[in-house]
Amino acid sequence: MTGLSPFAGRIIWALKLKGVEFESVEEDLTNKSDLLLQSNPVHQKIPVLIHNGKPRGKEGGEAALEEAHENLRILEKELEGKKFFGGESIGLVDVTFGSFAKLLDVLDEVMGSDKKMIDEDKFPLMGKWKEQLSELAVVKSCLPPADKLAAAVQARRNESAAA
Asked: According to its UniProt record, what is one Pfam family this protein matches (predicted)?
């Protein structure tokens, strides 16, 4: 049931906090519905966002990258005059987003595209933020080696291509 999923739960919280109207559909993960299987055929997991009858995240790479850049523009503005999102010290947003920053760099490398997810030329504050974050001892001690992460990403990519 999605009510038990922290991943679905945090999306529901965010939508409610923002006042966004939505319909939440409970999903029995032991007996997956046709809707889930059609909406997320590769991973068959929740949450799945369906907007105007189409699962989000299924657009081509260019559209997905542009959407990501729109969101990064918002984050870039939030960093103006700050070292971290909350100010001078690391906070929840930094931890939440920062845990993905290394993965995004590795995805860029594995995908081999000249277009980067977090392009430091377009998003200089995000680039500086990533650098400052990665210099923190606690972050350094928790980051997986880039080559190990790249191998895992490539293996997942190969699995998806074979499915």
From this structure: GST_N
Considering the entire predicted model, what is its pTM? Answer: 0.58
Q: Give per-residue burial for 71-83: e unless 16+ CB within 10 Å, then b.
A: ebeebbeebeeee
Q: How far is the C-alpha of 128 from the C-alpha of 79, rounded, in Å?
A: 10
Give the bridge partners for 30, in sequence order.
Answer: none
CB 9 within 8 A of CB 26: no
Rounded Cα distance between 22 and 43, Å, is 23
User: 7-20 pLDDT, tens per residue?
Assistant: 777 888 888 888 88
Q: What is the pLDDT of residues 71-102, one digit of tens each?
A: 899 999 999 999 999 999 999 999 888 888 87
Rounded to an integer, what distance in angstroms lies between the CA atom of residue 26 and that of residue 46?
Answer: 10
Region class of 32: left (phi > 0), else alpha (psi between -120 and 50), else beta? beta
User: What one-letter code names the amino acid at 112?
Assistant: G
Structural domains of the chain, with CATH: 2-55 (3.40.30.10), 61-162 (1.20.1050.10)
Residues paired with 54 in a beta bridge: 51
